[in-house]
Structures
1.
Amino acid sequence: MTDIVVIGTGAVGLPTAYYLAQEGMRVTVVDKEPAPAQGSFKAAIGGVRATHSEPPKIAICQDSLSIFSKWQEKTGTDIGWKNGGYCFPAYRPQEEDLLKSMLTVQHKHNLRIDWLDAESVKKVVPGINGNGLLGGTLSIDDGQASPLLFASSLTEECTELGVEFRLGEQATRIVTRDDRVAGVETDRGVIGTENAVIAAGSRASQIAATAKIQVPVLPDSHEAGVSMPIEHFLDPLIVDLRPGPEGKTANFYFGQTKDGSVIFCYTPSPLIPGEDRRCTSQFLPVITNRLLQMIPRFKNLVIRRLWRGLYPSTPDGSPILGRAPNVSGLYLAVGMCGQGFMMGPGIGRNLAHYIATGKTYIEAKLFESLSLQRDFYARKEVLK
Ligand SMILES: Cc1cc2nc3c(=O)[nH]c(=O)nc-3n(C[C@H](O)[C@H](O)[C@H](O)COP(=O)(O)OP(=O)(O)OC[C@H]3O[C@@H](n4cnc5c(N)ncnc54)[C@H](O)[C@@H]3O)c2cc1C
């Protein structure tokens, strides 16, 4: 018997297990893969920002930023944290208007973000194409970290806190008795517990359905890549919200990691639904053109590796958190979309505290607004 089973060692499952153990609970995590973080966690490019349009996500990511930025001080482990901020340059009035329209809510939540004119953007992003540049936002408290280093450090910290890892073991069913969790069935037997957290990423809806809970999470595929390291020149992560002229990209983003590599990604248009994680030959030519169009000096970059992973997406672009309806002891941490890495620590800390004490660190009404019982079509995260 264990106090709680966390299903999934992903970007949300691992930090949730860590904070549950810190709350004094006996924690077991199961993952169908033979090692932790083999789902989308390791596919993330490591961007961490609180610059969202929806207050619950702003609050969660402010918590995450505080955790990422103090992680090395707290644990002694370097996770590649770099506090370079996020810059959203604008080349068209529609992006300028959109970015400026979010500043009011972002300032209300104490984000240090401002609109810069074109000359100031050029200073922050050396070598940026100045043709038609109108300006952009810069949020100086945002940053980036290495998903691989963070996953490895979390695993070590969890192990030290006594978290039991059951790897290569697939959860097949939530066992219930009288509308309460009674265990988690896996392909190796039943783990007895009265509490379980579903943090199964793109497989969340299948496992939730075994407890008769419908969660609107569907995966879609995204590719990314990383270059050989070059001399440091770029502080912030850059997000270009424009659709690409080739008609295949909705937006694209890139940054330079602490070790000097340039890391990059785009949102395909149309989206690619499904769980296919095989790389395509289409990604590199498309992203190369976008990178060169924005930073011509990238023409000598040497690309080291490409990969593909999944966004576990919800209709409104926000995660689903908290108690599952009608099954006592069952909790959801699912639907992270393209932001599970940045939300993971904040969600883990708040959800663990909620499970242990019934309270959250962020405002309760913000946390509760992310429950499964919301209207998924009422609002949409603008920067999803
Ligand atoms: C190319 C790319 C770039 C990205 N960049 C960023 C970024 O810069 N910043 C950011 O915040 N996010 C980014 N993301 C998104 C981020 O990676 C995801 O949102 C995040 O990984 C989702 O976390 P999760 O814990 O829900 O799922 P995952 O990390 O996928 O973890 C789910 C885990 O559950 C396990 N599992 C599933 N079903 C079962 C089962 N039945 N039994 C046992 N185990 C099971 C899986 O094996 C997996 O380990 C990016 C994603 C991609 C693909």
2.
Amino acid sequence: MVASNRAWIFERRPVGSDFDSALNFREYSMPAIADGQVLVRNLYLSLDPANRRWMAGPTYMPPIPTGGPMWGFVIGQVVESKLAGYAPGEIVAGVGTWSDYSALSGDGLDRIPDMGGLPLHTAMGLFRGPGGTAYVGVKDIGQLKPGQTFVVSGAAGSVGSLAGQIAKNLGAGQVIGIAGSEEKCAWLIAELGFDHAIDYQTENVEQRLRELCPKGVDVYFENVGGAVGNAVAANMAPFGRVAVCGLTAQYNDDHAPIGLDVMPLLLNNCTMQCFVLYQYLDRLPEAVAKLAEWYRDGRIKYHADIADGLENALAAFKTLFKPGAPHKGKLMVRVDPAAN
Ligand SMILES: NC(=O)c1ccc[n+]([C@@H]2O[C@H](COP(=O)([O-])OP(=O)(O)OC[C@H]3O[C@@H](n4cnc5c(N)ncnc54)[C@H](OP(=O)(O)O)[C@@H]3O)[C@@H](O)[C@H]2O)c1
């Protein structure tokens, strides 16, 4: 076993987007595992907007304690096991730490199956959280019906880029993505098959939606909130559905109330439903099977933006909150340079 472990230490809760004061990269002791845990060598680290909420306070998990390594979803290889049924060499996924090595407990630990020749990072960026969230959000929460108009914000991101393609595959009449740059909008149309894309940094979203879908938006997949979310809320069709997946634009403000303007939703008899994938894990097998089929058939395109080296995790993480930042699709860190 390598003697050294580097980690991003969560020193203090961030104020706004001041992550430089919150996190510090340094040598750190090798995690000691307790009974019921495995020690893994991290291969990939997922960077997620939700990590910002984990820093702030309780979510679906307790708040991250200060003074130890920052938490994040990882894929890693077991190097030592005190968990029945898990042996060194196996590839697993779970909530680990921003470090070379993580101690993972059995709760929420998943064994990664043989990827059949696909890169291992598809297990993180396509088949697990992002794909499952996009599938459940479009199908179960949005309840999209063939022919309907579907709009997604954060459209060039990890969940959004998959949600738009899933909506298309499920028969949406029109798929419109909202993203933060001309380049991202061009990518959504040319590469991912979206019908239209709106650059919220240079275009008037509310007005463009009125032009593109005068009868209104049937299903809105909400990823960002803020001004973009309210511009879509103002354009909902009667009895439309809003699937609230995330509110990235509002995550760095720990004090302002978070949410959409519900008045236009009320006037249009809309249904707004929030969801967290953790409550829908029983839907993952269907989601993974469909995503695998569509990916094989070329009906889902998956893009990962991979930062090489643990030391670059914070710089990459900060881009999640920068409108128009260049990353497209799933943002992650390749911790082990040899990981495929
Ligand atoms: N409910 C669940 O179970 C679940 C699971 C996974 C993720 N989520 C949520 O889903 C959302 C998307 O996650 P993701 O991993 O796919 O992230 P992502 O979209 O890959 O990355 C975040 C993107 O948000 C956009 N953004 C940042 N600040 C913005 C602002 N002020 N206004 C508008 N857009 C802004 C940026 O894209 P542009 O350059 O286009 O602005 C940025 O690239 C997040 O809110 C996340 O918390 C929820």
3.
Amino acid sequence: MKRSPWQRRIDRAHELISQYAFAAEILGFYIHVARFQGELQRKLRSPLPQESPGSSIHEELTPNELSRLTSEFESFLTLVEAHGPKTLADLSRQLSARDQDFWAELLKQNWSAHAPSGPQSFLALAFLQPYAELLRSQEVLRSEFQRYAVCPFCNRKPGLGVLRQMGDGAARSLICSFCLAEWEFRRIVCPGCGEENDQKLAVFTAEDFNYIRVECCDTCKTYLKTIDLTKNGRAEPVVDELASAPLDLWAQDRGYAKLQNNLLGM
Ligand SMILES: [Zn+2]
């Protein structure tokens, strides 16, 4: 039976837990989140009869969409409270005490804001992510936007990169931190500032994760992790990006800021 993308990510998380003890906690949490996200996306796939046609990732959430999403948000908060790291669990407990109007506003704002602001945003975005991915998958890529380093669908910054085999070499794509769109992007260009001088673009790898490149820019001092699928075909980019948190500490110790945190806020 063909595994859904969610199941592939969950399976990969289990695999990485057995390999990297230090990542067990965050990946254990991720597995709960991914199960919820997969289930939510399955529910959202069947449109409500009264739903207005043409829902789009570019548009604000309609009142119908919002009430549908808001009704599912409480169970997400309960999940994070039970399984999340302490700061997120505490925050979820506080948010659980608020009412539906507050949740609706939180979801609405974060759907439209292009840069997350703090842990509350990350909770909202992690919850909204399966819906963003669903709407994006129903749209056609407007190719003229692909030269930019922001998502061609939802305008957010990429959360990671991937290298895929292309002829004799490898081509780089970027993956949206929110809707998980993937678009090709030239290899020797910083997605943070457009720097093209390879003297300024350092690439680091560590023995533990020899298939993950930490791509740093000395001009804007940002970095992005790129998963080299030509070296590790088993990797699920989003999950392997999460598991390789030690590389983030390494880059941040050297003064680089992550271009865009992942949906667990890391
Ligand atoms: Zn996007």
